[in-house]
UniProtKB/TrEMBL annotation:
Known catalytic reactions: L-isoleucine + 2-oxoglutarate = (S)-3-methyl-2-oxopentanoate + L-glutamate; L-valine + 2-oxoglutarate = 3-methyl-2-oxobutanoate + L-glutamate; L-leucine + 2-oxoglutarate = 4-methyl-2-oxopentanoate + L-glutamate; 4-amino-4-deoxychorismate = 4-aminobenzoate + pyruvate + H(+)
Enzyme Commission number, as recorded: 2.6.1.42, 4.1.3.38
Family statement drawn from the similarity comment of this UniProt entry: Belongs to the class-IV pyridoxal-phosphate-dependent aminotransferase family.
Names of the cofactor(s): pyridoxal 5'-phosphate
Keyword set, alphabetical order: Aminotransferase, Folate biosynthesis, Pyridoxal phosphate, Transferase
MF terms in GO: 4-amino-4-deoxychorismate lyase activity; branched-chain-amino-acid transaminase activity
Name of protein: Aminodeoxychorismate lyase
Pfam families: Aminotran_4
Source species of the chain: Oleiphilus messinensis
Free-text function comment from the UniProt entry: Acts on leucine, isoleucine and valine.
Biological process per Gene Ontology, one example term: amino acid biosynthetic process
Length: 291
């Protein structure tokens, strides 16, 4: 990342202090760097408004409890830092990334319980309301599940997901869906959904095997409000390849249609009507939060 790209990020937050991105420093002995001993959240910003912030904050605290990490900041403090960062960087649309590591110390697999956590935040401009992927759809491949067992914890250990995304890119696709014991768990950075011929919407049930997506929860609620039956269960690769529609959800992409899985075209190669109805409802959900 060159200096111009870093400077374009404007202000960042390091341990509660606002500093220019080009001057931000974190110890090379930080456990987030040495062990990926860190958790994170990404909150979308639309019209300078944080979208679904409270559920993201709740999930951050859930992840912290799961790894035995005590967060020294109050909810109000973290919300204020988010809002101030959006204001300082004049961010209209994009996202805020927050990461908390266990802190810095001598390298040791055993955890020093007296470490002071490291907080790092930055914002980045990005189109989310209107994107080419949402309009045209993407291609997906399936890959074997290679991640650790606790995928319900949002940790910074993202190498397997990154390698899966790279494999998809090399195959001419845009994303990869993980497969474990013959059933799809989730995407490299998203929750996976398919639509059956009976217009049922399937997505993997929650548990240690998938992240409890904030956007996933909102989409399920909105779909049910529109009269769709949402079934939370594992589905096979064959079910996915033969689905009438498919899509994925994430905080920074909202809902994106999948028009091809492993070379099998879905919905005539374009976003289907179920997806379009659900994304429209979600965009209304986003707009309802903007003052």
């Amino acid at each position: 990342m060159n200096i111009e790209a870093v400077q374009s990020l404007g202000w960042v937050v390091v341990n509660g202090d606002f500093v220019p991105a080009s001057e931000a420093c974190i110890s090379p002995f930080d456990r987030g760097f040495l062990f990926a001993d860190a958790i994170y959240e990404v909150t979308t910003v639309v019209s300078s408004t944080l979208i679904d912030f409270d559920p993201h904050l709740a999930r951050l605290r859930r992840s912290a409890r799961a790894i035995g990490l005590a967060l020294p900041w109050e909810d109000h403090d973290l919300q204020t830092l988010h809002k101030d960062l959006v204001s300082r960087n004049q961010l209209d649309e994009g996202y805020v990334y927050l990461q908390v590591s266990r802190g810095a110390g001598l390298r040791d697999f055993a955890i020093d319980e007296h470490m002071t956590p490291t907080l790092f935040m930055f914002s980045q401009a990005r189109s989310v309301m209107q994107t080419s992927d949402a309009q045209n759809g993407i291609k997906v491949i399936t890959v074997p599940e290679t991640r650790w067992a606790h995928r319900d914890i949002k940790t910074a250990a993202l190498l397997p997901a990154s390698l899966a995304k790279q494999k998809a890119k090399q195959a001419g696709a845009q994303d990869a869906w993980f497969v474990e014991d013959g059933r799809i768990t989730e995407g490299s950075s998203n929750n996976a959904f398919i639509v059956t011929k009976q217009r049922e919407i399937l997505t993997r049930d929650l548990g240690q095997h998938v992240l409890p997506g904030i956007t996933r929860a909102a989409i399920i609620r909105l779909a049910e409000e529109q009269g769709y039956q949402v079934i939370e269960r594992g589905f096979t690769v064959i079910e996915a390849e033969s689905a009438t529609e498919a899509f994925f959800t994430s905080a920074t992409a909202f809902a994106i249609p999948v028009v091809e899985i492993n070379g099998h075209q879905l919905s005539s190669g374009k976003p289907g009507p179920v997806f379009q109805a659900i994304r429209a409802a979600y965009l209304d959900h986003v707009r309802s939060q903007i003052p």
